[in-house]
Amino acid sequence: MTPEETVDYNIKVAWHAISRMYNTQAAKHDITTSIGFVLLNIDQENGTPATKIAPLLGLETRSLTRILRSMEEKGLIYKQADTQDKRSVRIFLTEEGLRGKEISRQTVRHFNLKVREKIPQSELNVFFKVVGQITGMIEGKTLYDDFTPKPLRAESPA
């Protein structure tokens, strides 16, 4: 099986192409794709608990910590203790963060609009169904329940 014939290769290549495209757009506004996705997931009115952001984006906490630090340095966000639970920190958008969120929103919408102009809804429905099934298999952690790698055969002397 060639890489081009595997499911994971095609998903990875497509995501990297999308990520590069988003990063090209984001760089014009001094942000990154990761920052854009974080901005999109922060509640404009009430802020968002810092602990809720990483799971929304499928990020490790360490990665999010670095991104949030960078966002704070760029003046996109500020942190504030939660009024209900003082142990928790909420992330809020600054005016600059709101502008970045709007740019990110427009960029994502434009991409999706262009994809929908070229690919019929019926094909997108199949795509969403298949990707959802793959994600479900992975999250269900049953993908490798019956998998045992075959031992490598020792090469015979020539």
UniProtKB/TrEMBL annotation:
HTH marR-type domain sequence ranges: 1-136
InterPro entries registered for this protein in UniProt: HTH_MarR-typ, Tscrpt_reg_MarR-type_CS, WH-like_DNA-bd_sf, WH_DNA-bd_sf
Protein name: DNA-binding transcriptional regulator, MarR family
PANTHER family the record matches: TRANSCRIPTIONAL REGULATOR, MARR, TRANSCRIPTIONAL REPRESSOR OF EMRAB OPERON
A GO term, aspect molecular function: DNA-binding transcription factor activity
Classification via Pfam families: MarR
Transmembrane segments: none
PROSITE patterns documented for this protein: HTH_MARR_1, HTH_MARR_2
Gene3D superfamilies named in the record: Winged helix-like DNA-binding domain superfamily/Winged helix DNA-binding domain (1.10.10.10)
Position of the signal peptide: none
Ranges in coiled-coil conformation: none
The species this protein was found in: Hymenobacter psychrotolerans DSM 18569
Alphabetical keyword list: DNA-binding, Transcription, Transcription regulation
Matching SMART domains: HTH_MARR (SM00347)
